[in-house]
Amino acid sequence: MAVGLFFVLLALDQLIKFLVMLTMTPGESVPVIKNVFHITYVLNPGAAFGMLPHQSWFFILAGAVMIAAFGYYYPRLKRQSAYFHYGCVALLAGAVGNLIDRIRSGLVVDFFDFRIWPVFNIADIAIVLGVASMIYAILYKEKESDE
Known about the structure:
single chain, 4 helices
């Protein structure tokens, strides 16, 4: 099931990015709910919130290290709680989704625009939800052991 989650998240991320690149021009914005939610085609040269712009080699290397670490630790991850296990899988899927963009063009395609937050993509959502799930698993497990 973890493999399925990984590929569904990765495929959805890449498919939506492909459709955005195919149908829009960079900088173009289409309102879905005017002044609340737009689809905006942004090419991000950095990490979250544009940090470390134009450091593609750093992010490619970090992504490769993450994939290698995940592969090495995966047998142990499978024995962890479902929240931690699937959180790691979601984190990896998001990292690989953005890594594909960086290898392809050096830029990450972002498109969800809520106007009060930097533009982001499905890979970013997978990363945030994966980390949140992992944190929840850690906190919940600690709470259980304290009782």
